[in-house]
Amino acid sequence: MLRIVVVNPKGGSGKTTIAINLASYFAVRRERVVLMDQDPQGSTTRWFRKRGPGALPIQGVAAWEDDGRTTRTFRLRIPPAATRVVIDTPAAMDGLGLADVVRDAHRIIVPVLPSDIDVHACTRVIADLLLVAKVRREDDRIGVVANRVRRNTLVYQSLQRFLATLNVPVVATLRDSQNYVRSAELGLGIHEMKPHLVAEDTLQWQPLVQWIEGARSAQGGDGTGDGGAPFEVPAVTGGLAL
């Protein structure tokens, strides 16, 4: 099982967009996917509930919900058959909270937008990961994603200069695309849409997923348990065509 955590204590950085589209990608690949929403805003949970009965199987866990009948440990449980776990974390976490949520993560994704405020927030979260959470650079667990980028702009050039100063990899650059908005409204990921509509966007995900799958090789084996067949929801063939 690979555990992927998407973190940035600053709200609006695109954590949910990355989390839901990663889950969608893994579902298309027939992995047994758990998408855990730890953010009290519940954006990932709302997306999950929009998915129709014919959607590819993803098991959602609304870890932020407290119904008074279950413990937090019970709500955070991961089904033993899961092969990929994607966690959307809350905003405004302090260093200790960050250390707790990334403790067992194989990959830690830090999205950053091309703005001065977001660059500053990214600097702080990476410092907390290295100094408080004690994540070692040489373990290659931290990856930065430049999100909602418009190339050939001054702010993008500024972001590029900042990212070049980090001693952690920039694993993907995702453009500012309405395909993310449209797919989210439908309870889908871009990997479940018609390929010719999202070809430019899905291409930009390849470096990110290759970096993530590198953790599988480091684990040994393929990390798919007993074959990566879907679970919890009846399987369908292929993605949803729009």
CATH domain class: Alpha Beta
> Helical segment tally?
8
| Sheet with most strands | 7 strands, parallel
Structural class: alpha/beta
Topology as a string of helices (H) and strands (E): EHEHEHEHEHEHEHH
Q: What share of the residues lie within helices?
A: 25-40%
Lateral strand order in the biggest sheet: 3-2-4-1-5-6-7
Estimated radius of gyration: 17 Å
Distance between the termini: 31 Å
| Total DSSP E strands | 7
Domain module count: 1
How does the overall form come out from the CA principal axes?
A: globular
Can you give the mean pLDDT?
84
The CATH topology is: Rossmann fold
CATH architecture: 3-Layer(aba) Sandwich
Low-confidence stretches: 221-242
- Give the DSSP E fraction (strand runs of 2 or more residues): 15-25%
* CATH homology superfamily name: P-loop containing nucleotide triphosphate hydrolases
